[in-house]
Input
Amino acid sequence: NGSGNLMDFLDEPIPDVGTYEDFHTIDWLREKSRDTDRHRKIANKSKESIWEFIKGLLDAWSGWVVMLLIGLLAGTLAGVIDLAVDWMTDLKEGVCLSAFWYSHEQCCWTSNETTFDDRDKCPQWQKWSELMVGRSEGASAYVLNYFLYVTWALTFAFLAVSLVRVFAPYACGSGIPEIKTILSGFIIRGYLGKWTLLIKTVTLVLAVSSGLSLGKEGPLVHVACCCGNLFSGLFSKYSKNEAKRREVLSAAAAAGVSVAFGAPIGGVLFSLEEVSYYFPLKTLWRSFFAALVAAFTLRSINPFGNSRLVLFYVEYHTPWYMAELFPFILLGVFGGLWGTLFVRGNIAWCHRRKTTLLGKYPVLEVIAVTAITAIIAFPNPYTRRSTSELISELFNDCGALESSQLCDYINDSNMTRPIDDIPDRPAGPGVYAALWQLALALIFKIVITIFTFGMKIPSGLFIPSMAVGAIAGRIVGIGVEQMAYHHHDWIIFKNWCRPGADCVTPGLYAMVGAAACLGGVTRMTVSLVVIMFELTGGLEYIVPLMAAAVTSKWVADAFGKEGIYESHIHLNGYPFLDVKDEFTHRTLATDVMRPRRSEPPLVVLTQDSTTVEDVETLIKDTDYNGFPVVVSKESERLIGFVQRRDLLLAIKNARQKQDGVVSSSVVYFIEDVPQSPASSPQSLKLRCILNLCPFTVTDHTPMETVVDIFRKLGLRQCLVTRSGRLLGIITKKDVLRHMAQMANQDPESIMFN
Output
């Protein structure tokens, strides 16, 4: 009986074996070797016939096809989001009578009655007060406009939070901390699903239009990764291999930043520097291609109507001077301090939200913050408009045609200079009024952003951080400009700033300040500088941007190594081993492994003496994710490791498909199963689900090495042996607990619940 008709699973693969449960970590090594096996099979088959050769070619090209599809969809969604946000932001202030779906700017483009001086005014565009009471000026008109502004803001925010709460709870936040965790090998089912994609796209428009202090850039990375996940499902190469799928998601993140900022190269570098865990050279090329297609698609849609990929494109006509490095570095220091304040304040508030009643009323919290934001924002023209428009105005250089209050300088009547090179002039009353309003806007933005990020709506962080930096930078820039004008005989200005020359560009200071604040919050450096110069087209200002970015990182790192994304990962307790963390303690594997001295012995399976009933009891009584397999309980010599999920599936499958497998059947993990007597029940051979090469270390391996192995190989667990005998096991969670303990943190508080 026995071995003749044994169910050998090598011949017939078991469905779902090798897949993972929700909130588990993938085994990178296993996924990698499965992909290598798949490649080998395809290469061997392709020699058999032309059809197999074509199939092999299609398989090789599938990666590029996925990138093309991601780029097209991400670019299209970004364009639609940009257009919808423009229209809905303007809807809070008025409506276009000729076509209600036009934004203010589009409405006045189509008008024949617009003059250059009053380019914002045209008869087709009417404020709500003009439409309802026929007046645009006066107290009643102001109150009515104020009331409708707040009402629209509350309506948009309520719709956004309700949709997220009912249909896709994962659509809230920026999504970057979770994407970093997913790319490190963690599984969060549904986080990149179709519903999340749909709801995130719709609610992102609503959230940004409500006027809250948040941006759409972070959520666009999440949207692009949802597109990546969607298209991965079309090809078995990616849908059946979690490690390959993560290569696609890394490239999708690059496409997301590419369309968020119109910065394809910055997007690739952002994916490499900030979000990706495993980034082989092949992924670099594919990211580049996905970012290119996404940027090209967005450019075809042309959402801003200026033939540019971004809203902030600027052209400065003056070079910068060495003496200006000092204020640039000061802005870097400000960015680092703001980054520290923001990270600490926001994490403290989010922790409070998690641990108090506040977390139980997400809708009320969003409504309250929106009401406060709208009520305070409306009276100040700089906070009333959308944050992107505010940054755009702050970046702008004052030309002869600018009608902004920030450009209200006193002109010299006998000035005969070319239009694009206007000399430094004394500030007029408009500039001083604007400075006061900007100072108030700065305080407001600093405070409100801390409470806004992390609410249950899609909320990005890039734009609010840049706004804080741009406001601070513009104020500093105007200060330096006026100082250079009134004191051009001072030694610092003497060499480069002659009277009547255009020396200082305040818009450049705004740009440098924006980079510094964004760097302080996220701790990006290389990708940040590239994003900033792609965003503004200011290629010759790389050195000031680099100086500010590096300074802000140094200052922020002095107060704490974690950026906002790492802090949120730790707050949520995701099992994320950060490559940037250093482990310098002198502990050994034996100090960390389970079981400890006081704990019961390690639960193991034997290679040829365990019954099906023993295995099922073991699975029922324990919650371990896998079991080591040994020769016998006495010798404890290690054979391999078997995953809990694979065991369950294999036994369930055998009971359904094979006669004679009962509770008393013996489970064999060996190659040659001995002949069993005719009277004994059918035995079960499960050698094929056994991992014969589990990663092992000796008990005297330094933990520094173990942590490195876990990081670089993406292990789930590692077995500890001495002279071939099994002593214990170290899991990824044990490593994280130990690192927290060594950093004097509560080891249980960092675990994902």
Notes: The radius of gyration is 31 Å.
